[in-house]
Design a protein that fits this description.
The protein is an alpha/beta fold. Helices cover about 25% and strands about 25% of the residues. A nine-stranded mixed beta sheet has the order 4-1-5-6-13-12-11-8-9, sandwiched between helices. The protein has a two-stranded antiparallel ribbon with strand order 2-3. It has a two-stranded antiparallel sheet with strand order 7-10.
């Protein structure tokens, strides 16, 4: 008998409709490689809509939660800042829904993987803060909005020993892509598990949770051999009974 695939809820992006677009009416969007990465790792991907009031209803049907990235930012007010940088772009509906799903998943001890903006959301939810615009706050930093294609590496990250990420990857460094103008400034109660060459935080995890991992890069592109290991470990954790 074939084992049941763990059901992985994947958060969606929300696009406004308009003339000459996919639809004149609002629609959800998701890059295919999020789905294929989960499927290849043995999971059953399920897209979850941006309805925060349904978070508790979805959790009994999910074995894990994947919070995706997107071309938007978290409201600085959520991490205690009163000023908003001119580059900050908000999607309140998405942030509200993802926070609700994240809270429900952590409450029920479901494995969570946050990618790019998803990692930043985890940091904020765990009491951390963000750099609103890397080029201004860290002018000596690498170009974290890389000029080369997103399916190529941009820089390397150093993996912190004795972390969940180190246990998963079994390596001291990874080659990663980079598609973010913001970054984690302080990690709150999360533990930092990866740092870029310029000191920018690239990964974190919650050591009090059985699997709560965030990475700033996009492992769904499978650029480094360890990218697949991250998805394999996430789906494996989702399939374990607690």
């Amino acid at each position: 008998m074939t084992a049941r695939r763990p059901v992985i809820g994947i958060t969606l992006d929300h696009e406004a409709g308009g003339k000459d677009r996919y639809s004149r009416f609002p629609w959800y969007a998701l890059r295919e490689n999020y789905m294929s990465a989960v499927t290849t790792a043995g999971g059953l991907p399920v897209a979850v809509p941006l309805f925060p009031q349904l978070a508790a209803d979805y959790m009994p049907h999910l074995d894990g939660l994947l919070i995706t990235g997107g071309a938007f930012d978290i409201d600085p007010a959520l991490y205690g800042e009163t000023q908003r940088h001119d580059t900050v772009s908000l999607r309140p509906r998405r942030t509200q829904a993802e926070l609700a799903y994240l809270s429900a998943a952590l409450h029920q001890n479901l494995p969570v993987l946050g990618i790019c903006g998803g990692m930043q959301l985890i940091a904020v939810a765990l009491g951390g803060t963000l750099i609103q615009h890397i080029p201004e706050s860290c002018p000596e930093a690498l170009p974290h909005e890389q000029p080369n294609p997103r399916d190529e590496a941009s820089h390397t990250v150093s993996i912190t020993p004795d972390t969940l990420l180190a246990h998963i990857t079994r390596t001291q460094s990874m080659a990663v892509n980079s598609s973010h103008h913001q970054a984690v400034r302080t990690s709150g109660r999360a533990r930092i598990n990866a740092v870029a060459e310029d000191g920018i935080i690239e990964g974190l995890e919650d050591p009090t949770h059985r699997f709560c991992l965030g990475v700033q890069w996009h492992p769904e592109f499978g650029i480094d051999p360890s990218d697949r290991k991250i998805f394999n470990a996430f789906v494996q954790a989702a399939g374990e009974k607690v």
